[in-house]
Specification:
By secondary structure, the chain is an all-alpha fold. It has helices at residues 2-12, 18-27, 32-56, 71-85, 94-104, 107-111. The chain has 6 helices and no strands.
C-alpha cells in the first residue's frame, strides 16, 4: 500500500502540480503542447508503476489492497483524476481504472473530487 501511495505522492504527482506547470510555462517558456507532453509523461509513468504493482499482488481486489479503501486508494485517485483532466489514455491500466471506479462509487471520494471544490480552476 505504501509503495502505491508513494508512487503518486512522492514521484509523479509533485511534477504536475500548478506550481510546476506555471514554472514550465512562465519561466521555461514551454509551449502548451510541450507542457501537456510533460504532464502526460509523468502521469503515465505513475500509472504504469501502479498498474504493475496491482498486477503483482493478489491482495488487489475492489481496492488496491482488499475490499476496503486505504491510503493507496486515495493516492491512486489523485493520480487518475489529473490523468482524466489532461486526457491521458487509461486503456492500458484496467486494474487502476477498476480501483478508481470503486473509489468514486463511495460518496466521500466523489464529493472530494476537485471539480466539486469551491476553489476549482
Amino acid at each position: 500500500m505504501r509503495g502505491i501511495a508513494l508512487i503518486n505522492a512522492a514521484d509523479s504527482h509533485p511534477l504536475i502540480v500548478p506550481r510546476v506547470r506555471h514554472y514550465l510555462t512562465d519561466v521555461l517558456k514551454l509551449s502548451d503542447e510541450q507542457r501537456l507532453a510533460w504532464i502526460r509523461y509523468w502521469l503515465d509513468a505513475g500509472l504504469q508503476a501502479i498498474e504493475a504493482l496491482l498486477a503483482e499482488h493478489p491482495e488487489s481486489g475492489r481496492f488496491c489492497h482488499g475490499d476496503r479503501p486505504t491510503v493507496a486508494d486515495i493516492c491512486l485517485v489523485t493520480q487518475v483524476t489529473p490523468a482524466k483532466t489532461f486526457d491521458c489514455p487509461l486503456g492500458p491500466y484496467p486494474r487502476v481504472v477498476r480501483v478508481y471506479d470503486s473509489c468514486m462509487a463511495i460518496p466521500a471520494f466523489a464529493e472530494a473530487h476537485p471539480s466539486k471544490q469551491p476553489d476549482t480552476e
